[in-house]
Specification:
The protein is α+β, with helices and mostly antiparallel strands and 505 residues long. The chain is 28% helix and 22% strand. The strands form seven sheets. It has a four-stranded antiparallel beta sheet with strand order 3-2-5-6. Strands 7-8-9 form a three-stranded antiparallel beta sheet, with no helix packed on it. Strands 10-11-12 form a three-stranded antiparallel beta sheet, with helices on one face.
Length: 505
């Protein structure tokens, strides 16, 4: 009898001893002892970087423990903050479940503008901390978050299987490739293909949107991908493509990222190019099809009336009438060859002046101080800095009015003179039927320092303005061509910089 009682006592003693050795002081399972469901882990730390662009110093990073079956939060969390590079480190992380959400919240540095964001965002990464102690939180980890949860809770997948599938689907839906990536390893300052995809996608999402709209936009992306793994929002896709094809200054983005951190910036440009070229259905551009012209095949694009030319290995927008037979004129001052068009009795430059005048004070300018705009549109000039080549001059108000009469009158001149594809037809549907039949190819370059690019083109006029005493004042006429039917004549100060079209003497 005593022997049996001793056996029972000893057996219970061993159970208690095992339980005590498997538990920490607060009662949670540690990696050094028995596990609960085989999942309990303890890691010395969890580190990584939180990035849109890099999160600002002091941004909060929290690791939330998740239930292994439902992926619901258990209530246990570990908190840390980022440094000025967006890096963070969470110490003494001890979880019963191996799954966690890492959440980064705060302001971030915008890679498109180069400035600190005006609003805060939240990005998440769902991870298995039994497999890694380094976790990066970024745009792509957030995109996969809802999709992974859906696959686990609705399709019965393991977290590992769900993450592999979601990551493959996201790369495929945006870039048409089937690379196997782990999004928590990616870094916009890395040098791999996945790092390049991350920076490209992060940049595309911001294109043409304020950073204040980013959280809403990201929620739309995630919701769209959640159930089928496909980003099928045609409107958003073409918005990104239209901005990337025309306005996204990739050199400026690269410089901004270099300014955030001097580390190597990945080759993200090729994935942005690949995205919009695919959306437009342009195909390959190489030496074999140099000079080929193709129309935008996207029926939803705001640039669907535009043509693109294969030049030096890449597609570029072709802002002139491909069916019109232009003349040409070579400016001996810099060797630039201008297209010309004869309308009625007048011969005009069929593109904006782009001579780098030597005027030091009131010289030439690029819209938004970006060379991208000068390459596409030419330069902006103040009144006193205009310098047409010999044999040509800045047109007078009467010469402009003669042009309008020759194309059907000032009330209808805009539709006859606008460049096909230069206006976004989704935003300005009245430009949809533009044919540029006279080859004048007016473009919506706006006003330097004031805006209106994409909506209106403004052109310098030679006439000076006189006051009531006949004295010259510091204003002159300008011609306006906007998205409506008609053109108009206004005035602007000499110091206002706008486009110039030269007319033959």
């Amino acid at each position: 009898m005593l022997r049996n009682l001793f056996k029972v006592f000893f057996f219970h003693f061993l159970l208690v001893l095992c339980f005590l050795s498997a538990c920490s002081d607060d009662g949670e399972s540690t990696a050094g002892g028995a596990t609960i469901g085989g999942n309990a882990i303890t890691v010395a730390s969890v580190s990584g970087v939180a990035q849109k662009g890099p999160f600002a110093a002091g941004s909060k990073v929290i690791a939330y423990e998740l239930d292994g079956d439902s992926l619901r939060q258990t209530g246990k969390a570990f908190v840390g903050k980022t440094d000025k590079y967006g890096a963070f480190k969470l110490n003494n992380v001890s979880l019963v479940s191996k799954y966690a959400i890492l959440e980064g919240s705060g302001y971030f540095f915008n890679e498109v503008t180069g400035e600190k964001s005006l609003g805060q965002i939240t990005l998440n990464a769902l991870v298995d901390l039994s497999e890694r102690e380094h976790v990066n939180i970024n745009f792509l980890t957030q995109l996969e978050y809802d999709r992974v949860q859906y696959l686990v809770t609705h399709e019965g997948m393991s977290v590992t299987e769900a993450k592999q599938q979601a990551e493959g689907e996201i790369v495929e839906t945006f870039f048409g490739v089937s690379d196997s990536l782990q999004f928590e390893d990616l870094n916009i300052f890395g040098d791999g293909e996945g790092d390049a995809m991350l920076l490209a996608m992060s940049t595309l999402a911001l294109a043409n949107h304020s950073d204040g709209d980013f959280s809403e936009l990201l929620a739309e992306f995630s919701s769209d991908i959640e159930e089928d793994g496909v980003f099928g929002d045609t409107k958003r896709r073409v918005e990104m493509a239209d901005f990337a094809a025309i306005y996204l200054d990739l050199a400026k983005v690269r410089k901004n990222v270099e300014n955030f951190d001097s580390s190597k910036v990945p080759d993200f440009e090729k994935y942005i190019y690949q995205f919009w070229v695919s959306e437009y259905g342009l195909g390959k551009c190489s030496k074999e099809n140099e000079g080929e012209l193709k129309e935008n095949a996207s029926k939803s694009s705001g640039r669907r009336t535009a043509s693109f030319v294969c030049h030096d290995g890449s597609w570029k927008i072709f802002l002139k009438n491909p069916e019109f037979k232009y003349g040409s004129f070579t400016d001996k001052r810099d060797g630039y060859v201008y297209r010309t068009t004869t309308i009625g009795k007048q011969t005009w430059f069929a593109e904006n002046l782009r001579y780098a005048t030597k005027e030091e004070i009131l010289g030439y300018f690029c819209y938004d101080d970006s060379q991208l705009y000068c390459d596409m549109y030419g330069y902006h000039y103040t009144h006193k800095s205009v310098s047409c080549p010999d044999g040509w001059h800045m047109p007078s108000r009467d010469e402009w009015l003669e042009l309008f009469d020759a194309v059907g009158g000032i009330e209808h001149a805009a539709t006859k003179l606008r460049a096909r594809g230069a206006w976004n037809v989704n935003e300005y549907p009245r430009t949809l039927e533009d044919k540029d039949e006279y080859g004048f190819s007016a473009m919506p370059y706006g006003v330097y320092g004031f805006g209106d690019e994409g909506h209106s083109g403004y052109f310098r006029v030679s006439d000076v303005t006189l006051d009531s005493l006949g004295k010259e004042v510091e204003t002159s006429y300008v011609i306006g061509i906007c998205d409506g039917d008609s053109t108009w004549v206004g005035n602007a100060r000499y110091s206002t910089a706008v486009s110039v079209r030269c007319i033959k003497d």
